[in-house]
Amino acid sequence: MEVKLNINDKNGIFYIEVDGKTEAKMTFLFAGDEKIIIDHTEVNPGNNGKGYGKMMVQKAVEFALEKNIKIIPLCPFAKSVFDKTPEFRTVL
Q1: Looking at residue 49, what is its pLDDT?
Q2: Is 47 exposed, middle or buried, given 0-12, 13-18 or 19+ CB atoms closer than 10 A?
Q3: For residue 38, how many other CB atoms are within 10 A of its CB?
Q4: Phi-psi bin for 42: left (phi > 0), alpha (psi -120 to 50), beta?
């Protein structure tokens, strides 16, 4: 299962496709050159418990580390993942 990334100007989306259909997505926007704001996470019905949300947050953390930027998790789901996963907090 691969989390994909699409960036369009000041916005971006991490997403998971299964059989060509987007089953989960997490949107963000750039806040200047040094931060991204995760504003929404959505997983299609029937995919609960598969870990898609956490996988997308992990990909966002990897992206932040690679680009040397910080994450502001405004999305309640993303914030809960950061709260439960101390090793992700290095990018906050």
Answers
A1: 93
A2: middle
A3: 24
A4: beta
For the chain, what is the mean pLDDT? Answer: 97
Tell me: pLDDT of 61 over 90: yes
Strand positions, DSSP E, 1-92: 3-8, 11-18, 21-30, 35-43, 70-73
Per the CB < 8 A criterion, the answer to whether 71 and 61 are in contact is yes
Torsion of CA 66, 57, 92, 32, to 10 degrees: 60
- Cα 22-28-32 angle, rounded to 5 deg: 150
Closest listed residue to residue 76, CA positions, set 30, 42, 36: 42
- CA separation, residue 55 to residues 14, 29, 32, 49, 72 (Å): 10, 19, 25, 12, 17
Alpha carbon of 11 to those of 22, 49, 55, 87: distances in Å?
18, 27, 19, 25
